[in-house]
Amino acid sequence: MEEQIANLQTKLKLLNFTAKKTDSTIAKADIDVSERLCSSIKAMIKAVSDVKETIEEQKFKSGATVEIVSEWSDEIEQQIEFADEQVRKIANQIREINYEFKQAEDVKKRDAQLEFERAQRKYVKYRLTLPLPYQEAQIKTSKAKEIFLDAKFNLNKWHSNESELKLDNDAKDGNDELSYAKQQLGTTSSETKLLGLPWDKENDTLRIEFPQVETEPTKQGVLSTLAKVYD
Length: 231
Fold this sequence. Notes:
By secondary structure, this protein is mainly alpha-helical. It has helices spanning 2-19, 22-28, 31-61, 66-128, 133-150, 168-173, 180-185, 219-227, and strands spanning 191-194, 197-200, 205-206. It has a domain at 1-114.
C-alpha cells in the first residue's frame, strides 16, 4: 500500500502542476492548446481516481473505519475538484471560441449571399434594359436595309429560324401555296435554300439530297456530281 500511496502522491503533484497552467493557457486563446491541456487534465484525474479507489479498497481490507478512509479521501477529492474546475474553465473557453468562430463564419456567408444577390439584381436590371434577341435582330435588319438602300441596293429575302422574328419575306410568303421557284427547288413551305441546301427553318435542319444520276467514275465526274448537291 505504501508504494501505491507514493504513486498517488506523484500523480497528484503532476495533476496540480498541470492544472495550474489553465490561466496562462486560456490567455493564449488558442483552441488547439486549450484542447490538449483539457485532455491531459482529464486523463490525470482518471489516473488519480483509479489509484485512490484501489488504496481505499486496501484500507478497508486492512480494517480501517469509514471515518478514517473518508477523512483521507476528502483531501484527495479537494485536489481532484480543483482540477475539475480547471477543466470546466477550459471547456467554457473552447465553447466561446467555437461560438465566435461560427458567428464570424455566419457573417461571412451572409455577406457573400448579400453580395451575390446584389450582383444578381444588378445583372437582371442590366438584362431588362437590353432588347430581346429577336428584337435586336429586327433592329439590325432594318438598319442594314437603310444602309444598302442609300446605295440603291434593296435587300430582301431575309430568313430566320427564330419564331418571334417576323421578316418581310415571311409575311409575304405566309402559309399559302408554294411558289413556283420553291416547287422547282423541291422545298416545303417551312423551307428555304441555304448554300443551295433546303433549310427547314422550323426545325433548323439542313436536308442533303444526292442526285440520282449516272456519272463516269472519274475524278471530274465525282466532283461534278458532288457539286450538284449545292445547285
